[in-house]
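Tutorial, part two.
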Amino acid sequence: RQNYIDGFRKLLNLPKHIIPISLIPMGYPDQEIEKPDRFKKDRIHYNSF
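Running the prediction step on this input gives:
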């Protein structure tokens, strides 16, 4: 865990008294990743449960 904190501090040029809790990445991916097909026909119900 300390390695992550130190890495974030160095990456973001944070002072020692600031403790990064989380990092939210934003932007576009370098490459498109194929998304898995998660459709499950047995979970579809018509007029019943």
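The CA atoms of residues 26 and 32 lie 15 Å apart. In part three we will examine how such features are distributed along the chain.
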